[in-house]
Specification:
seven-stranded mixed sheet, alpha/beta, 2 domains, 12 strands
Length: 397
């Protein structure tokens, strides 16, 4: 069943069958991206008997997915997953190196049974190297990539900006790109392959500009004193009189001139824009001016100019902001929850995200197994052996 885009064309990934082994943060985003663009995603959740306390976090990025509750630690559970993978196009697994091999579900086994399978392994440190078997989180991957050393204000410790960079950008998004690249290559070779997606390498790759721009002098000063890392008065956030904030990004001289004008200053009376030694004093000056008006008043001054000044919107105000509203950049599901619509926008086959609530764990267990060729009798046996669970307590065979 392929959902159709507005123009009637099937979505870009319609027909692609994805099996996602439930994990935390990055893998669920990766699979959600594929689902948003039309793939049929089965999320394999742990049964409540096998689940750890952390397993529930996986459920928040379940848009457009169906859930199968399966205990992979029991041999019949691992065998059931092997059967699913014989028909699947993509497997996404988020475990530390060696876990899948111990379950008899490593790439050698699954690719032998289905040579077209794209086996995506999404981990913090990758499949090889000293830390391959070590635990870690976003802040650790960010640290090892070098990126964390660049983040933070002057005279403060480096800080991690929530867990967006390594988990979601370097992990989930880069892995999705790898899967789509491998699917494209398969159209030519007919063969699947293994994707080793390391969040350390993913976020390092994202930071390529930082590496390649080192000789431009952009990063020659200590952390927090450079053009783009909160050193410059014209690339900074400022508090308004109503306790809100404005973001300023007026880098180019012509944009800077508009910023100065909007602030009611005269550039003739100010030090030159790139006079580093005057930056701290200029920041104080800008801060005292921004503190004199409300966010709305500053918006009315700067909207429609090229001063590169925008309001810092809290989540509550983002979807209703005029620009985002005009583009329909945020969507509401049938539970009235707001979230960003899938990006980027494709003209002919745009993503059509599901507006249904996220699935309960095990909600589609029977439906999925029937679809993947299991008989009612086999399903009944798996259920009585406690290898599978049904999310709906009323479900009965």
């Amino acid at each position: 069943i392929s959902r159709r885009s507005a123009g009637g064309a099937a979505m870009a990934l319609s027909g692609v069958q994805v099996v996602e082994l439930a994990g935390l943060a990055p893998a669920p985003l990766c699979a959600m991206i594929l689902a948003d663009f039309g793939a049929r995603v089965v999320r394999v959740d742990r049964t409540s008997r096998a689940a750890s306390a952390g397993a529930l976090h996986a459920a928040v990025q379940g848009r457009g997915k169906r859930s199968l509750a399966l205990d992979l630690k029991q041999p019949p559970g691992a065998a059931a997953l092997r059967r699913l993978c014989r028909r699947a196009d993509v497997l996404i697994e988020p475990f530390r190196h060696g876990v899948m091999e111990r379950l008899g579900l490593g790439p050698e086994v699954l690719l032998q049974e289905n040579p077209r399978l794209i086996y995506a392994r999404l981990t913090g440190f990758g499949q090889t190297g000293k830390y391959a078997r070590s635990a870690g989180h976003d802040i650790n991957y960010l640290a090892l990539s070098g990126v964390l050393s660049k983040l933070g204000r002057k005279d403060e410790n480096p800080y991690a900006p929530v867990n967006l960079l390594a988990d979601f950008a370097g992990g989930g998004v880069i892995c999705a790109m790898g899967i789509i690249t491998a699917l494209y290559e398969r159209t030519k070779s007919g063969k699947g392959q293994v994707i080793d997606a390391s969040m350390v390498e993913g976020v390092a790759y994202l930071s390529s500009f930082l590496w390649k721009s080192q000789n431009l002098g952009l990063w020659s000063r200590p952390r927090g004193e450079n053009l783009l890392d909160s050193g410059a008065p014209f690339y900074e956030t400022y508090k308004t009189s109503d306790g809100k904030f404005m973001a300023v990004g007026a880098i180019e001289p012509k944009f800077y001139e508009q910023l100065i004008k909007g602030l009611g200053l005269d550039s003739v009376e100010l030090p030159s824009q790139m006079s580093f030694s005057d930056w701290p004093e200029m920041k104080e000056k800008f801060a005292s001016i921004f503190a004199q008006k409300t966010q709305a008043e500053w918006c009315s001054i700067f909207d429609g100019t090229d001063a590169c000044v925008t309001p810092v919107l809290p989540f509550d105000d983002v979807a209703s902001h005029q620009h985002n509203k005009q583009r329909g950049s945020f969507i509401k599901n049938d539970e009235e929850e707001i979230s960003p619509r899938p990006a980027p926008v494709l003209s002919r086959t745009p993503a059509v995200p599901s507006l249904k609530r996220d699935p309960f764990i095990g909600e589609h267990t029977e439906e999925i197994l029937l679809e993947y060729g299991f008989t009612k009798q086999e399903i009944a046996k798996l259920y009585s052996d406690k290898v599978i669970e049904f999310g709906d307590p009323k479900a009965s065979l």
